[in-house]
Amino acid sequence: MAQPPIDPIRLPRTMNDYIREWLRHKEDLLRILLEMEAAPSPRNCTKCGKDGVYRCTDCMHQPLFCTDCCRILHEAHPFHRIQQWTGEFFEDSALHMTGFQLYLGHNGAPCPSASPGPEHGPSEGQRYKMDTRAGGMGMVEEEWEDIDEVPLHLRPPANSKYLTIIDVTGVHFVRVQPCQCLDADSYHRQLFQAKLCASTFEKPSTAFTFAVLDDFLRENLECGTSGMNYYSKLRRVTSNVFPHLVPNRYRELLRLARQWRVLKLLKWNAFQDETERSSPGDLALFCAACPQPGINVDPDVDLDDWKYTRTVVMDGNFKAEHMHEKRPDDQVWLMDGRGFMVAHPPYQEYLQATPHITEKSACHNHRAISQANVSRGKLSATGIGATACARHGCFYPHSVVDFQKGERQLNMDYSLSNALGYNMTGIKNVLCFYDINCSYMKNLRKRVNNSPFLHIPSSLQIVPGIGIWHVHGHKQECYARYAPLFLRGSGWVDGEIIETLWSILNIVSASTHGMSSPHRQELLDFQMNDSNFMKMIRIVDSLSRKLKAARASVAMARDAFTKLDEAVSSENRQAWSIQEESALGGRVRDVSVMDIFEIQLKKAPTVRAVELELLEAPSQRGTRQGAASWITCGLGIEESEITLAITRKDSSKYPSETKRLAMARRSDRLAVDRSRFIVDGQIYLAPLHQGTDADDYSAGMTDVAHHMSAVDDVVSGEEDSEGSMDEAADAVPLKMTKIAPLPLPSNFGIERCRAAGADELVEMELKLRIGQANDALHGLRIALADKAVAFRGVVRKATSYSMRTRAWQMVNSIDISVRQQAAIYKRCREAMIALGADTDTLTRFQQLQKSHMAVHTAAFSQNAHDHRSSNLPWFWCMDIPRTTSSKNWLTEFYRIHWLRAKAVKDRWEEEEDLLMSEFHWTMNFFKFRAKKWNKKCLSFKAAGLHGAACYAARQKAVYDRLAEQGASKWLNMSPEIQPLNQ
After folding, report:
1. Does residue 81 contact residue 92 with C-beta atoms inside 8 Å?
2. Beta bridge partners of 141
3. Cβ atoms within 10 A of the Cβ of 905, count?
């Protein structure tokens, strides 16, 4: 029996494949497109069969109609665009040219009570002239102006009353006939009931459809389209050839958009009148997954449990600038303080009553601190500051503040105080992330207690943190003190999510620069509310993805920690666990206790410590001020040149253009630094420079290539208890550039320096060289210890080709650091010899051998027996007391790896627990909202508000559906776990 043919493997089609397919049909599609320009044959009305004159471009299939059928069939579609047959082609037309009229009331039928009388709209006989308002052209009322040059479809109905109506299909002139019954509503109410929003209440001449207002708000939210650009688009939709002849209603659009936003927010929150206003931020939507007692968390549970910790993040955004207003006293606030921006009058009162105290940072000079008092004269607000939930990225209601200058503490205090007062009843713990928390949190309680405008409960425990991206810009000790990895109860969070929120808000920030303060506030509130809404409807999918990733990461973290923990002695395990618990429990009182996550062994004096000692010591006669800093600068240049040379050597044979450019820039900067150093050297070494060229002081150093070749002889491979571990790949040798030695005392030689009376400079450089050697050996120990851990925990555990590739890439990266530190140390020792170092110094700083670079992984196992073949080299114990075990350095490194691996495991376990709880809190939030809307529905029905009751029922159904989808997703992910009732 013949076998059926095997289908070839079908590869996924690319974008270019689809384009190529389209090219085969291009001519045919173009022909069809052109044929649509002609009238059908015979040219009959598709409804009655009479002579067809008009066709509708918005109706399906562009049907052809006679005049009467076109008018009658468009009574339900008054804003369709039509075209009229001229005998040769179709030209743009308008429905009012068919005699179409829009009837208000009576379901679109003419009012039976209609009688001749005064009607709304412009007076008869009015003519129009061109207008250039707001940068565009339109038509305004003016008598006896000729408009023959205006196309027919852009002319208002002649000798008739009409209304200019703006829809998504463009600008229309429509004859409107209101209901004239005795009990008829006012004209603007009839228009609103017909889904037309009048621009004014008395004798309106312009109206916007609900559809166009919704479309503008949506484009403003999603695309950041400004009112000017949106109305420009509508003019082109109306007439692509003559958009400048379309009436300009840009200002009316801005005004009605403000009103429409507020109406939408009131409707979404079931507010019927101002008497129902409850609290600041009541028109704002908050996070569904954050614990909110009384909403998604039972207020009777133990809220002191770590799971109920609120995690917040603060930051400033300097894109949301605001110009000074022309009439600041003439403003109308529509929702001041009811959204995310704080109420204007109380905030201004707080600013006037609170002095700004500049606090000097003990950390680096961060921009948020250094530019706190920077003001710009043309701006009333230089930006905004906000607080958001750090786990899900939802803005806190009534917590967004304006900056008057820079990112001052008093601004962020007001934001944080308002945020921590929102649905926080019973919450006792807060994790707060902020870029400069190391400085900001020091006196927060003092500032709050001294201000009658701020309130943060004293029982609320605030643990400060710094986002994982920003913490690396701080001092080294800030990492263990504030990084998310070491914050108990934070889960796996980066503390930087607010940066993603700014990118969304910045879409509209540019268009708010010149707005009035109320308009700007309403626009930003609406944008932030939409951001929170999108987070809410997607929260279930987000939590599902995170929970799936967390479960996989928990297993990996546990496995990694278990393998590390197996090599730890029980005594060390117990001691390290006590250290960890003590630090995590005492960090609120003294954050410095977190330093146990850093290396604790006392280090030998560093270059900086030696330089500081030399600078603080009284200078001797004959020594110029600044000599120690000058020598330190020379040592730094040498280090940079050695590091760059090794980087070049370890680059591929054909490095990328970007990498070559980076190395070229580094080389150029070094050349500039070298030139400045040589010029300064003529001041400090003037006697030695006289009649001296480079060859006369090259005894202590040849060139970088010499050190590299010597280091390559030292650094070859690593050995463990099972044998040699070869490097993954040999570095491609590159031609090394010969670099002239720097004019340092070590390069002149001790005899010549003494003859010139530069003994003190020799002594200075020797001390600094010792400090530099200590730094190099410290870096070498770190690199070798990291390499041993990498071999033990990564290379040996790699089970696939890709895993082995990544593992060896990690090892090779560490190898580069090993070679760099070894080369720097070799140069230091050569300089010490040239400077006449004594025997004790040279005995302490021995020569590196090839065997010293070998890493015996058995020595890193806390439970392994000592082996004679695994004795550690001399530099592992040179910085600790003689009575201490030579393994103290390795024990310290193992302690750090153990503590950090445990922190990773703990954070991932917390993340899994938190995500499961957040799933249930989210379901509770949806149920709470559904119950709230159901209660509203019943109260509306009792009050006879049938429309409001129907809307409440629809909103209840929405939240019921969200809850059902969430429950279904939960059961699919955790079929063995039943939902919790919290």
Report:
1. yes
2. 128
3. 21
Instruction: Determine phi and psi for 239, rounding to 5 degrees.
Output: -150, 110
Residue with tokens 């309680």: 445
Do residues 206 and 252 make contact, with C-beta atoms less than 8 angstroms apart?
A: yes
pLDDT of residue 311: 96
Spatial contact of 612 and 749, defined as CB atoms under 8 Å apart: no
Round to whole Å and give the CA distance between 196 and 212: 10
Distance of CA 538 to the CA centre of its chain: 18
Burial group, residue 690, by CB count within 10 angstroms (0-12, 13-18, 19+): exposed
Neighbours of 627 (CB within 10 A): 21
Beta bridge partner(s), residue 384: 317, 402
DSSP state letters, 274-322: GGG--STTTT----SSS--BTTTB-TTS-TTSGGG-EEEEEEEESS--E
Dihedral (Cα; 934, 937, 938, 943), 10-degree rounding: 160
8-state DSSP, 44: B
Query: Pairing state of beta strands 429-433 and 310-317?
Result: parallel
SS3 letters across 315-371: EEECCCCEECCCCCCCCCCCCCCCCCECCHHHHHHHHHHCCCCCCCCCCCCCHHHHC
Q: Could you give the CA distance from residue 76 to residue 33 in angstroms, rounded to a whole number?
A: 28
Q: Partners of 234 in the beta sheet?
A: none
Phi, psi of 288 (to 5 degrees): -80, -20
Q: Outline where 420-538 has alpha helix (H).
A: 437-440, 444-449, 476-482, 497-509, 517-537
Q: CA nearest 897: which of 569, 556, 560, 554?
A: 560
Long-range interactions of 725-730: CB distance < 8 A, separation 24+: 725/791, 725/795, 725/855, 727/811, 727/812, 727/815, 728/808, 728/809, 728/811, 728/812, 729/808, 729/812
Give phi and psi for 725, each to the nearest 5: -115, 105
The pLDDT, as a whole number, for residue 867 is 35
Structure tokens at 16: 């270019």
State which residues of the chain have pLDDT below 70: 1-9, 115-148, 272-278, 359-362, 364-377, 600-603, 619-624, 652-654, 687-739, 789-799, 803, 855-872, 876-890, 974-982
- For residue 430, give Cα distances in angstroms to 57, 363, 457, 588, 709: 59, 23, 11, 11, 56
Q: Measuring CA to CA, which residue among 431, 335, 362 is closest to residue 391?
A: 431
Q: Which two tokens stand for residue 530?
A: 């939409």
Give the C-alpha separation, 174 to 161, whole Å: 9
Q: Are 403 and 396 in contact (CB under 8 A)?
A: no
Residue-by-residue DSSP string for 387-433:
EEETTT--BPTT-BEEESSS--HHHHHHHHHHHTTSS-TT--EEEEE
Distance CA 720, CA 131 (A): 87
Q: What is the pLDDT of residues 167-201, one digit of tens each?
A: 999 999 999 999 989 888 999 999 999 999 999 99
Instruction: Pull the structure tokens for residue 618.
Output: 């009284």
CB 520 within 8 A of CB 512: yes
* pLDDT tens sequence across 832-875: 888 888 888 888 888 888 777 776 554 444 444 333 334 567 77
Whether residue 43 contacts residue 52, with contact meaning beta carbons closer than 8 Å, is answered with yes
- Give the span between the Cα atoms of 118 and 135, in whole angstroms: 35
CA–CA separation, 782 vs 787, rounded Å? 8
| Pair type for strands 206-209 and 401-403 | unpaired
Contact present, 384 and 277 (Cβ < 8 Å)? no
Q: How many helices (H) and strands (E) does the chain have?
A: 28, 20
Q: What is the DSSP letter of 149?
A: T
Closest residue by Cα to residue 338 from 401, 398, 272: 398
At residue 431, φ and ψ (nearest 5 deg) are: -105, 120
| Residue 197: strand pairing partners | 208
Q: What is the pLDDT of residue 430?
A: 95
* Cis amide linkage into residue 42, ω under 30° from 0: yes
